[in-house]
Design goal:
The chain has a single domain, classed as Glutaredoxin (3-Layer(aba) Sandwich). It is built from 5 helices and 7 strands, in the order E-E-E-H-H-E-H-E-H-E-E-H.
Length: 202
């Protein structure tokens, strides 16, 4: 399915349509074509939208994600950073920014805005029209959307918090949804088993 054919924005619990998009691969220094079907049954995906290359908050966010990339990879995750820039701008930014030189995950190009619209982060009006809001989306290996985080573009995100949410989502999936994670849960913390016996006792 082409992205322009998928009109409605994704919601929690929705399954991603089959998507194909271009990206700059920093590891190989080449343009690549990625397909979501290649990750199904194999990896979790994190779509990490940001407004634009060669800006201010964006390099601090991508640098922090890059510094935690090995931890995400250990969890079976691929990070896909996305902006409405082209693959050529991604390469130029990677070549010239010390912060972005640390990035090893694919940098997806969305110049049409179709991917940003699918995830409901596309800015259609105002001074930032044509850009994406800061949005982080965790997708499980079945292609189901598990978390949505969207910020005003003046507010940076936390890679550590994204990693914590990812680990919580993995724990719930690995335990068949029987055990769920309370506020600020970290691996090793107590979990909850929803049921009538818990009503009014928390």
């Amino acid at each position: 399915m082409e992205m322009e054919d998928y009109i409605e924005s994704l919601r929690i619990g929705d399954k991603l349509p089959e998507l194909t998009f271009a990206a700059y691969d920093p590891k190989k220094d080449v343009e690549v074509t990625l397909q979501t079907k290649d990750y199904l049954g194999k990896k979790w995906l994190i779509f990490f939208f940001y407004p634009a290359d060669f800006t201010f908050i964006c390099p601090t966010e991508l640098e922090e994600m890059a510094e935690h990339y090995a931890e995400f990879e250990k969890e079976g995750v691929e990070i896909l950073s996305v902006s409405t820039d082209t693959v050529f701008v991604h390469k130029a930014w990677h070549d010239h920014s010390d912060a972005i030189k640390k990035v090893k995950f694919p940098m997806v190009a969305d110049p049409t805005g179709n991917l940003s619209k699918l995830f409901n982060v596309y800015i259609a009006h105002g001074g930032d029209a044509g850009l994406a809001s800061r949005g982080t989306f965790i997708v499980d290996p079945e292609g189901m959307l598990k978390t949505i985080e969207i910020h005003d573009n003046s507010i940076g995100r936390s890679a550590k918090e994204t990693l914590r949410k990812l680990k919580a989502a993995k724990f719930v999936r690995d335990n068949g949804g029987v055990q769920v994670c309370p506020a600020a849960w970290e691996p090793g913390d107590d979990t909850l088993k929803p049921g009538m016996d818990l009503v009014g006792k928390i």
